Amino acid sequence: MKKSKASKKAEAYQTRALDSARAEFAMETALRRAIENGDLTLRYQPICNLASGKVESFEALARWTDEHGVQHQPTEFIRVAEESGLIVPLGRWAIDAALATFAGWDRRGDASHAIRVGVNVSPIQLQRDSMPDVVEHALAASGMSGERLKLELTESALIAEPARMARMLTALKSFGLTIAMDDFGTGFSNLASLQKLPIDVLKIDRSFITGMLGDRDKIAIVRAILSLSQALNMSTVAEGIEMHEVAQTLAGLGCTAGQGYAFAQPLDAEDAYRFLLTRNR
Ligand code: C2E
Ligand code: MG
Ligand code: MG
Ligand code: MG
């Protein structure tokens, strides 16, 4: 019997769904192995003062090149890590590795002593792992003080269990950590919870910065975020600054710090250290 057009379509759809499920599983398996083997690396992107150009901190960003030489997109393997629970070991590794790099820089001289490192923390990791224990352990292992570590959280992390998040952030703050709200403006933060939680930094999402110069709406949003953060006694970092004109405009609006290709791409540890030495000389 001839198959109908519709059933052929349904079959093709099922085949594709199965293929993509297999691909996901293969990626999960490879990622698990990469984490176990220590094949992930971190790059460090400088966050610079917009007035002086000096480095204030770095953001650590995970990179994964698999055994076939394929470089996976962070947004993709982080999603797979979140869906599979691998974000817990990956997230622990990122904090340990970033602090180890900074401890190494500290031993080379005093250039890095006042510089913080920011590590991204997934909402799933916040739910599943005990972050205060993870941080306490990582600080002890590296010998670094909590003032040197910044955690970048997203708005979605705070929505699910606000009371538990408040307790966790307070416990983290007791180590001297800095808490940053990443991609700010893209989620829907409850402004009251923003004010109640111990958040130090708002990071203005790249989508408002890209193409900002010719766009009154984007400039209006950036202004609104800047005045919100001032009112709440927070500082602001603009993400995705690709042009110096944008950095100048942001400085004029009262934004103090930013990151983006106009300053530097995410760099490997050695290049990041050299960038710091040159910039902050
Ligand atoms: P994010 O935390 O918002 O990081 C900023 C992203 O913007 C990075 O993408 C960075 O490379 C990119 N970027 C920086 N400057 C510019 C610029 O001037 N122009 C443009 N177009 N892009 C710029 P990346 O490294 O691909 O990471 C993507 C996302 O993956 C991160 O967004 C973060 O949410 C997640 N991620 C990366 N590493 C980790 C990690 O170790 N743990 C967790 N939980 N998430 C991570
Ligand atoms: Mg980030
Ligand atoms: Mg961001
Ligand atoms: Mg982002």
Automatic annotation (TrEMBL):
Coiled coil regions in record: none
Species in which this protein is naturally found: Sphingomonas hominis
Protein name: Bifunctional diguanylate cyclase/phosphodiesterase
Location of this fragment in the whole protein: 243 to 523 of 523
Top-level taxon of origin: Bacteria
EAL domain: residues covered: 24-280
